[in-house]
């Protein structure tokens, strides 16, 4: 029987790539978008349901709709997310909250919405798309790192809470993938007189160069399929270039000062 997969944010980038691959492999896929009507002519191979993950009622309605149609939700992929950059001191608190609303509370609303159905079946898998940035506080991306690090920790706790119900949960932390994330990202406006202006500018230059040179999101689709089909999953997966994955290991083994020096060099600070 084909597995039923709900992917939040299936309209572009990583979510679209995962959905497209899973459909080609025979899965029943539902994607989502805040504006699905915008994508009606885009010949996506799966339907897009209207969803803003920051709205818990909307999350419940989407899960209910799929449960009614398919009788189950086998896999939830919490993919919807936004970027945010800026010096923490100058980033408006409302924008910090907004980033957490989408990247942290959004997945929580979704998990709360699907878990009653998964518990009833004593079966299910939740995949949270976190980020390599969630393993370390990156300069001028502290809020983004924090949203993803927080989601990763919640997954760790939930794995222990859910395992006796036959429900599994894992994180996939991507490195840089060439998607629309930079267009939707919030960039904190920095005044000409700001003490941070020069360094923030340097970091943004490195971030933009990395993004231009980043991997095709279609690479993630196969990885997600392998993870879905595994009997024994790990809790944490990473997807990306060798050095991006290696940076997580280096952070674990190097003294903080040495690791921070590597980051400072990398970002030309
Ligand atoms: N690209 C990377 O290098 C990278 C690296 C690490 C982690 N990630 C993570 O991967 C995930 C996908 O990002 P992407 O790179 O594919 O970016 P993207 O191309 O900008 O796609 C983001 C998706 O999230 C959806 N979305 C945004 N806010 C939403 C909200 N409030 N409610 C529901 N859906 C919302 C968007 O849908 P609509 O706009 O149609 O609603 C869109 O489908 C994110 O969680 C991101 O943090 C990306």
| CATH overall fold name | Rossmann fold
- Helix coverage percent: 40-55%
Going by CATH, the architecture would be 3-Layer(aba) Sandwich
Number of strands: 9
- The CATH class turns out to be Alpha Beta
Domains, number: 1
Quaternary = single chain
| Secondary structural class | alpha/beta
Which H/E pattern describes the elements? EHEEHEEHEHEHEHHEHH
Rg over C-alpha atoms, rounded to the nearest angstrom: 19 Å
* Large-scale geometry: globular
End-to-end Cα distance, whole Å, is 53 Å
- The fraction of residues assigned to DSSP E strands is 5-15%
Query: Low-confidence runs (pLDDT<50, min 5 residues)?
Result: none
Main sheet properties: 7 strands, parallel
- What is the H level of CATH, i.e. the homologous superfamily? NAD(P)-binding Rossmann-like Domain
Q: In DSSP terms, counting alpha (H) and pi (I) runs of 4 or more, how many helices?
A: 9
List each distinct ligand once: NADP nicotinamide-adenine-dinucleotide phosphate
pLDDT average, as an integer?
96
What order do the strands of the largest sheet run in, or round the barrel if closed?
3-2-1-4-6-7-9
